[in-house]
Amino acid sequence: MKIRYFDHAATTPVKQEVLEEMLPYLKEKYGNASSLYTLGRESKRGIEGARKRVAGLINCKPNEIYFTAGGSESDNMAIKGIAYSNKYKGKHIITSKIEHPAVLHTCKALEKHGFRITYLNVNKDGIVDLENLRRAIRNDTILISIMSVNNEIGTLQPIYEISQIAKMYNIIFHTDSVQGVGHIPIDVKNMGIDMLSLSGHKINAPKGVGALYIKEGINIEKLIDGGHQEKDKRAGTENVAGIVALGKACEIAKRDLEKNMEYLKSLRDYFINLVEERIVGASLNGSRKLRVSGNSNFSFKGIDSQSLLLKLDEKGICISSGSACSEGNGKPSHVLKAIGLSDEEATSAIRVTFGEENTKEDVDYLVDSIIESIRELNS
What we know:
Blueprint: E1 4-5, H1 16-22, H2 38-58, E2 65-68, H3 71-85, E3 92-96, H4 101-111, E4 116-120, H5 130-136, E5 141-145, H6 159-168, E6 172-176, H7 188-191, E7 195-199, E8 210-214, H8 229-232, H9 240-278, E9 282-284, E10 295-300, H10 305-314, E11 317-318, H11 334-338, H12 343-346, E12 349-353, H13 360-378
Parallel strand pairs: 1-11, 3-4, 3-5, 5-6, 6-7
Antiparallel strand pairs: 2-8, 7-8, 9-10, 10-12
């Protein structure tokens, strides 16, 4: 049976170009990048070359890129790093109710250490209200952390406008852009972003590698003690092959960004139109326009999403009911609840996220399979 994959927000396949570039660093160029001999220097050159490529994708200086093990570590490093290094200035942080668990759980952990967190409401499309943000700012606010793109409903936040509010009050602005980098144009300088998290496996690099952009001049307290890697901000022997892969993936993402955005938007809109035309009781979640190109999220009245996913899996289809990090916990999505859905509506939702290998024929098969599966569940 052919597998049709529609869960690119959860992870993406490693591209052949990326694999070919990283393999030598697992075989011939296996040196420790901290070693002074030639083999070590080759690994160091690979890391620094990747740093330039990542920086090129988001328009920053290479020395503003710090490599991590992925998006969750980058979020923790950014939020806890700023919190601990600025705790004498203030202990108030602002975020939103629809952030990824890597941000929400990090904020919850900080609350145990005396920090106060404001969790902003969002509207029915999942967008933060700028006036609410302004009203939430206090004299002791040290950080605003709002994601660029929501991982469940694809909502695009007004990042530039948020950054300007933060700048007005001299507050550091961090954005979790794990679902944004490589999928929408990101220019940290023009957008006024101080810190940004990204992850390799969302852009066709392997799992287990990511990066954090920290604007020059911003100091954070490190979370991992040990050696002096990553300019003494993140100890540990570098994942050289993974870092090289991330660099190559960022280079490809920059090269193909406009083409991929246009193609994925065409698939997304084709899917949304087909579902709305053919399936009674289907309801699109999130903004119709202000959403990332490859994302769609539907609730199906009277259907349990977990049962629907299992039916579709039998037909070779891979989709999800929300964030892969929360899949299977049995609770309604916190994102869908935040935009006003009932428990029943939230637990009937599926997320379909497209990749460049998907075709319109795949979409036709997907919609036919959803219709057939719903009929089977209702029978």
